[in-house]
Design a protein that fits this description.
Layout (H helix, E strand, L loop, with lengths): L1 H17 L4 H30 L3 H22 L11 E4 L3 E3 L10 E9 L4 H7 L1 H13 L3 H5 L1 H18 L5 E11 L1
Antiparallel strand pairs: 1-3, 2-3, 3-4
Helix pairs in contact: 5-7
């Protein structure tokens, strides 16, 4: 009879010894889930950095390469000024502070805008018309909503709109492009 009770007590111990192997599949599942989570995090970071928030330095280099290519084509044609029509500088406007449309004065944009010049003579005309250029710039920036001003992709459109507006004021030499030296949205 003692043998029967010892056999009964051994069976639960043997069953307890068999349960740890069941933890290995659970551990494997956890490791797989952690691996998938890490892969998703890396993919989200990559997408965010390349599509939504690209590095401004690489964008500036690409724009510089494009403008250099355009200048090389113009130099090859030979302009009226000795064959070189490279940009001669940037005329900077003083700091501009505006309230975006629809914010009720609770938010503001502080920016310094630069106008890239095609000829040195353009600087005199820009200096003479600076109050008008500032007015056009302030009006254009104040007409934009907070979402538009915050969008990095819309900033290129904003540059183009500003360039068209400024060139509408200039009679002798148009502006080649617009540069935002500072751009702070609060």
């Amino acid at each position: 009879m003692a043998e029967k009770t010892s056999e009964k007590t051994k069976k639960p111990q043997e069953e307890a010894a068999e349960t740890p192997p069941k933890k290995k599949p659970a551990l494997m599942k956890i490791l797989i889930m952690v691996g998938i989570l890490l892969a998703q995090t890396a993919a989200a970071y990559f997408i965010q950095k390349t599509l939504f928030f690209p590095d401004p330095a690489t964008h500036t280099e690409a724009v510089a390469e494009e403008s250099h290519g355009e200048q090389s084509e113009e130099e090859g044609k030979g302009g009226a000024h000795g064959g070189s029509e490279a940009s001669s500088g940037v005329a900077m406007l003083d700091e501009i502070i505006v309230n975006p449309a629809g914010t009720g004065g609770r938010r503001f944009l502080s920016t310094i805008v630069g106008l890239t010049l095609s000829k040195p003579e353009a600087e005199k005309e820009i200096t003479d018309k600076m109050p008008l250029i500032r007015d056009v710039t302030i009006s254009l920036l104040a007409s934009k909503t907070l979402d538009q001003l915050a969008s990095l992709t819309y900033r290129d459109t904003l540059r183009q709109e500003l360039q068209v507006s400024v060139n509408g004021l200039l009679t002798e030499t148009p502006v080649n492009g617009i540069v935002f030296s500072t751009y702070v949205l609060q």
